[in-house]
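Weekly puzzle thread! Below is a chain. First person to post its structure in C-alpha cell form gets bragging rights.
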Amino acid sequence: MSFPKLRVLLAGAVIFTGACSFDEDLWPSLNASEPAGKPVAEAAKPAAAEPQAAQQQQSAAQATGQPALGSSKFVPSGVTPGEATGTFVGKKVQELREELQKLQSSILQHNEQLQSLRSRIVESSQQYHGTIAAVKSRLQVGTTRGNPVLVQQFNTAQQDLNRLSQDIGEMNKLSTGVSSDSTLASFLTESVRAAFKVSGAVDEDHRQLAILEDEVDQTVVLIDRLHREVTEDVRRQSSWIGAEQRNLVQISAGIRQGESLGASLLDAAVTGRGQGASQVATPADTTGRRPLVVIRFDRPNVPYQQALYTAVSRALETHPAAVFDLVAVAPSAGGAARVAINTNKAKRHAEDVKRSLVEMGLPPTRVAVSAKTLAAAKTNEVHLYVR
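Winning reply:
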C-alpha cells in the first residue's frame, strides 16, 4: 500500500482557551447573546407555519440532506350503521360494529398525533438548519476562537436537534400504539369471519356482516399503511439525527479554532469500512516507517489542527479504509526521572491529538495510541502514521 508522503512539522499544544468550555464537553451549554438586539434563540424562532409554509420548510430541510417525512393522512371511512334483527348473530354484529368504531377512533387519534409530530419536526428542522447555516457561514470566513455569538447559536442548534430527537422518540412510541391497533384489527377480522358460521342468522345479519367485513378489511389496510409510514419516518430521521450529532461535534471543533476545519473525516472514512477497519485498532510497529505527521511540542499555544486535518483527509481520500498509529515520542536523554516526566507529557499530548481527530470525525476505532522514547528527539513529539 502506497500512501502520500506527507510530513507536517508543527509546534503546539492542545490548550483550548476563551469563553467556551468545549474542553469539558463536546456539546457546550453556555450563555451568550448577540452584542445588540434579541438573543439568537429568540431571533431564530419563526411564526407558526400554515400547511403550505410547512411544506416549504420541509423542502428546505430536504435541500440540506434531511430525509422527507411522510405526508399521508390516515382517516377511516367510518362504520355503516345497521338495524337490530333480534337474533344472537345480530347482537354479535352490533358488538363488532362498536369495536370497529373504537378502533377507528384510535386510528384518528394516532393520525392527529402523527400530524402534530410532523409539524413540530418540520418547525424544529427549519430552525436547526437556519442556525447551523449561519454558524457555518461565519466559520467559513473566519472569526475569533470561541466566539460567544457562535457558541450561543451552537447551543440553540443543539437544543433544536434534541427536540427533534425527542419528537422522533414520541413517534416511535406512536408506532407501538399503531401495532396495538393492528392486533385488534386482526382479532376483529377473525371474529367477523367466525360470525358467518354461527347458526341462527337471518339474511339481514349476513348482509350487515358482509358490509362490516369490508370495512374491517379497509381499516386493516389503513393501519398497515400508517404503521409502515411511521416506521419509515422513525428509521430515516433517526439515521439523519445520528449524522447531525456527529456534524455538531465537527462544528464545535471549528468554533474552538475560529474557522471551519472542513467536512467530517467520517465522510471519507465510511466508504472504506471492511478490511477490519471497523474493529478497534491495535498499535503496530512503526520502526522504519515514515510518519504522515510530526507534531513537535516545543512551545505552547500554537494550533496544529488545520494542518492535521488536511493531512489525514488527504490520506483518507486515497485509502478510505486506513488505520492510524498515533505515537507519543519523548526524548531518551536526561536520566530516568526526566524521561518519565517527558513520557507522561508526550502521552497527554497524544491523547489530545486523538481527541482532535475524533472531533474532526475520525472514528476512534481507527486510531491506535502507543508511546516510545527516541534519542534523536529534542522535545516531546507526537507522530502519526498511516497503514
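Puzzle host: Confirmed. Bonus trivia for everyone else. Residues 203-257 form the longest helix (55 residues).
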